[in-house]
Every structure is written in structure tokens, then in C-alpha cells.
Amino acid sequence: MLGYDKEKCLEIVNEAGIEVPRAYKYGFHNNNCLKTGCVQGGIGYWQKMYREFPDKFNAMAKIEHDLTNLRGYQVTMCKHQSSEAKAKPDRENLLFLKPHPDYPNNLTVLDVKAREPKPLMDCNGIGCAVNDLNKPNPTAQEINYELELF
């Protein structure tokens, strides 16, 4: 990694005559998973997805609910990190994208205040494929490779 900042990366891309990825034009700070939404995105990221791409947001909310129903416990992408939320009973600090009828004590990403999306590392992914040589955990394996679930 060369340690370029975002501006330098965009300058190199522009000088090469390459169009800047659409995600940047929408105001996202990375170009990860724009087709579906990034499962590693935080609360602010998913709030922005809700505003910019409600259909994609709703599709991922349905997947969260389907996986939750399949597993029998909350399966979510986001977690509320406040002290108050951390004091809640096990798994009640997990945030659904949309309310799940079986878990009324869990809030959604739309119920909490969040920071706007920020890049975790400039000119790099937010973690996808960084550890691609490591064996994935069972949930990641199931979500990413067992397509018959959907």
C-alpha cells in the first residue's frame, strides 16, 4: 500500500481517464458493494443507503429478517455501541435495518443517531477480502457461499 490519500487516488484515476465510481458521486466514501449495500457498513452508512437507495435498503432488511427467522435469533449487520445499549440483555443491542416483529426490544438503524459514513482506510476496501486467505467463520461462509438460502 502506497499510503495515498483519497484526493491523490482520485487524481490518479482522473489523469488515467477513468470515470470516478458512482458511489463517490452519491457521496459515499468508498465504492464497496453499491449493488446491494455493504454488510460491513455502519449505522451511518445504512442510514445513507435508506435515503439514497430505499429499494436496496429494503432488500437487505428482508435478508436480515430471513436469516433471523432461519436461525431463531437476531442476525443483524449493525450494533448499537452506546453505554446504555451495551447494558441491555444479550443481543438486544443489535440493530435491525427495519423492525422485526419477533424482536420488539431491538431498535433499528433509523432509530439512532449516527455519524455520516467515513472511510476506514483511504483507497482500500473496508475489510472485504483483506483476510481472504483465512477460513471464513460459519456465518460468513453461509451468507457468502450458500446461495440456496435465498
Please give a structural write-up:
By secondary structure, the chain is mainly alpha-helical. It has one domain. It is 36% helix and 3% strand. The protein has helices at residues 6-15, 22-25, 43-52, 54-71, 83-86, 138-145; strands at 78-79, 94-95. Strands 1-2 form a two-stranded antiparallel ribbon. Helix 3 (43-52) crosses helix 4 (54-71). The protein is elongated, with a radius of gyration of 17 Å. The N and C termini lie far apart (37 Å). Mean pLDDT is 80; it is low at 119-126.
Distinctive features:
150 residues, 2 strands, 6 helices, 3% strand, mainly alpha, elongated, two-stranded antiparallel sheet
Total strand segments: 2
For the record, the count of structural domains works out to 1
End-to-end distance: 37 Å
Biggest sheet statistics: 2 strands, antiparallel
**Order of secondary-structure elements:** HHHHEHEH
Helix fraction by DSSP (H/I, runs of at least 4): 25-40%
How many H/I helical runs? 6
| Cα shape | elongated
Class per helix and strand makeup: mainly alpha
Kindly state the mean pLDDT as a whole number?
A: 80
Strand order of the largest sheet: 1-2
- Rg over alpha carbons: 17 Å
